Amino acid sequence: VSKLSLRNIEKRYGNVIALHPVSLEVEEGEFLTLLGPSGSGKTTILQILAGLIDADGGEMLIGGKPAQHLPAWERDIGLVFQNYALFPHMTIEENLAFPLKMRRRPAAEIARRVQDVLEVVRLPDIALRFPSELSGGQQQRIALARCAIYKPAIILMDEPLGALDKQLRDHMQIEVRRLHRELGATILYVTHDQDEAMAMSDRICLMNGGRIQQLGAPEDMYFSP
Ligand code: ADP
Ligand code: ADP
Which is the closest atom of ligand 1 to the Cα of 45? Predict the structure, then answer.
């Protein structure tokens, strides 16, 4: 149900080719990383999958179904970005409850799941604080929790650890992998950090100039020095 297939997906911005025809399959439950320099087309792939922008050509299947005309909220996709995108005027509890309220879950269930997910990200005591009162690392854990709370089958992550310092990034890599195991979700992860891709991924898709250069398990990748 959570397999992703891109078949000859293309995207142009005026004269700029963001994606040459790209074909990629992400297996159910897989952790696949798009690795590549800035401008190589990584974010464009995530945006097309999330339904935030349309491809110019090609075909896309989500869970085996043509997705082009599926609205974003029907794709069972969660998004996590570098800038956290927590709602600043809401408490942590309200931020976490938001996706469940949107889905009209009962209040008692929401309260229970908010507490559960705060335990999962090991921040059980901050429900009533505001995002600005948390450190960057804590905010990023809440952003992960807000995505995990409704258990999407597919999670798209765009440089989610990019704003964190090295020590926190190493720690959060472990947290993200633990979340992947616990949710059993298919994860498509974007980074320009080769070490991060090597440490976290089942497979790495190396991109450059809007094309796939290599695709394979970390131990099978070749990186030019
Ligand atoms: P990456 O995520 O690997 O940094 P992007 O997918 O963001 O790469 O961008 C791929 C190419 O498309 C780049 O050349 C970028 O400048 C261009 N691009 C992306 N978004 C836009 C946009 N909204 N308008 C014009 N060009 C864009
Ligand atoms: P952007 O601000 O880049 O356009 P969005 O508006 O799509 O991004 O998403 C803003 C924030 O809301 C993101 O951090 C994302 O994790 C979260 N979000 C997006 N879609 C959903 C959803 N269906 N359910 C819960 N949270 C969502």
Answer: 6
ipTM of the complex: 0.68
The verdict on the CB of residue 87 being under 6 Å from ligand 2 is: no
The string of DSSP letters for 138-173 reads: HHHHHHHHHHHTT--SEEEEESTTTTS-HHHHHHHH
| DSSP type of residue 73 | G
Residues of the chain predicted below pLDDT 50: none
Q: What is the sign of the dihedral through the CA atoms of 196, 199, 203 and 208?
A: positive
The C-alpha torsion from 108 through 113 and 118 to 121, rounded to 10°, is 180
Which ligand has the shortest distance to the CA of 103? 2
pLDDT tens track for 125-163: 999 999 999 988 889 889 989 988 988 999 999 999 988
pTM, whole model, 2 decimals? 0.84
Contact 189, 35 (CB under 8 A): no
DSSP state of 87: -
User: 170: closest CA among 199, 135, 141, 133?
Assistant: 199
Beta carbon of 191 within 6 Å of any ligand 1 atom? no
Nearest ligand by distance to the CA of 210: 1
